[in-house]
Amino acid sequence: MIKNVAQRMVCLIPGGLSVMNAAMIAKTVAGSKSHVTIECKNQMHMAHDICGVLSMGIEHGDLVAISACGEDAEETIRNIGLLLHEDIDDVFNPMHSDNFQTALA
User: Fold this and answer.
1) How confident is the model at residue 90 (pLDDT cuts 50, 70, 90)?
2) Can you tell me whether residue 89 is helix, strand or coil?
3) What is the DSSP string of 20-80?
4) Overall average pLDDT of the 30-53 stretch
5) How far is CA 31 from CA 43, 47, 55, 75, in A?
6) Whole-angstrom distance, CA of residue 17 vs CA of residue 64
7) The CA-based dihedral angle spanning residues 79, 30, 69, 17, taken in that order and rounded to the nearest 10 degrees
8) What is the predicted pLDDT for the residue at 86?
9) Domains of the chain, CATH where assigned
10) Distances from the Cα of 78 to the Cαs of 16, 25, 98, 101, in angstroms?
11) pTM
């Protein structure tokens, strides 16, 4: 069944949205069966468009609206929400050994 889902969330990534986070969002959308848009700062882009998403300049504390239409819309939005709460660069940074070991597990 096709669902339309929209959710607003706050970006909690300490340094704002990075290239790695944007790439992971695009990868999440590419693996879903939903059409997804991201809106922030009066701009809207397709979530699979890394450059478009990065051009919004999403910073820590910014309100982000995610909309999805498709069979797995809820799951896709939930997964994108996780990516807006975690600095992917930090998770894979070997200088933070606890995070690095968890990422490898």
Assistant:
1) low
2) helix
3) HHHHHHHHHHHTSSEEEEEEETTEEEETT-HHHHHHT---TT-EEEEEEEETTHHHHHHHH
4) 96
5) 24, 12, 23, 11
6) 11
7) 50
8) 74
9) 3-104 (3.30.1340.10)
10) 19, 11, 25, 24
11) 0.79
Distance in angstroms (rounded) separating the CA atoms of residues 74 and 70: 9
- The residues with which 36 forms a beta bridge, in sequence order, are 68
Specify the amino acid at residue 63. Answer: L
The two three-digit tokens of residue 68, written as one number? 């999805």
Cα–Cα dist 13/87, whole Å: 5
Q: Are 56 and 40 in contact (CB under 8 A)?
A: yes
| Mean pLDDT for the stretch of residues 45-71 | 96
CA angle at residue 54 from 49 to 57, to 5 degrees?
Answer: 145
Q: Are 93 and 100 within 8 A, CB to CB?
A: yes
